[in-house]
Design a protein that fits this description.
It is a single chain. The chain is mostly loops. Helix content is 10%, strand content 0%. It is built from 2 helices and no strands. The N and C termini lie far apart (56 Å). The relative contact order is 0.08.
Length: 221
């Protein structure tokens, strides 16, 4: 139904009708301009959004499992409470996007631009955020167990109260980040830049990790 799904969606949009709740599973939406369009509650499982223009679009409560958002523009998009299990966001633009309470389990966010993104209470277990830019992002209360933030930029990010157990911050930029009250058992902080970051009330750090963080200019330890 890939081409039909795209044609039907564009017909509805052109007619000014609602596309909310549509079944668009597997739709081919490559390079499609859906800027500002509401697709709340849609089933878009496995859809292809390669290089699609999706800024300010609303995907709240949508099923987006295994979708391909490679190089898509999702700036300021809403993906609140959406299901994005195993979704592919490599090189995508998610600046200012709201993914609060979304399920991004096993999602690929390599090289994604997520500056100022809202990821409150998001589920990011085993997610791949290698080299992602999360400067100023809000991950308060997020579940990032087993996620990889290797070489990622988390400067000024908030990870207050997050579950970061066995997550990987190898060579990550954590300058001025806030980890207050986070669970950090088994994490990898090797070569991470922690100057100015807050670890007040965290649990799970080893003596060696505490000494490393203190030597690097972290606070609250």
């Amino acid at each position: 139904m890939s081409d039909f799904g795209r044609d039907e969606l564009l017909r509805l949009i052109a007619a000014g009708e609602s596309a909310d709740g549509m079944d668009l599973a597997g739709a081919n939406l490559v390079e499609t301009d859906l800027s500002g369009v509401s697709l709340r509650g849609c089933n878009l499982r496995g859809a292809n959004f390669y290089r699609a223009v999706l800024d300010n679009a609303d995907f709240s409560d949508a099923i987006l499992d295994e979708c391909d958002f490679y190089k898509a523009d999702l700036e300021n998009a809403k993906l609140v409470n959406s299901s994005l299990i195993r979704a592919h966001f490599k090189d995508s633009d998610l600046q200012g996007a709201d993914l609060s309470q979304a399920d991004l389990t096993n999602a690929n966010l390599e090289w994604a631009s997520m500056k100022r993104a809202k990821l409150v209470c998001v589920k990011l277990e085993r997610g791949n955020l290698y080299q992602a830019n999360l400067k100023g992002a809000d991950l308060t209360g997020a579940n990032v167990r087993g996620a990889s933030f290797e070489n990622a930029n988390l400067k000024d990010a908030s990870l207050c109260g997050c579950d970061g157990q066995v997550s990987n911050f190898h060579r990550a930029k954590l300058t001025d980040a806030n980890f207050s009250s986070a669970k950090l058992d088994g994490i990898n902080l090797r070569y991470a830049k922690v100057k100015g970051s807050s670890f007040e009330g965290v649990s799970g750090l080893t003596k060696e990790q505490i000494e490393y963080a203190q030597a690097g200019g972290a606070k609250g330890l």
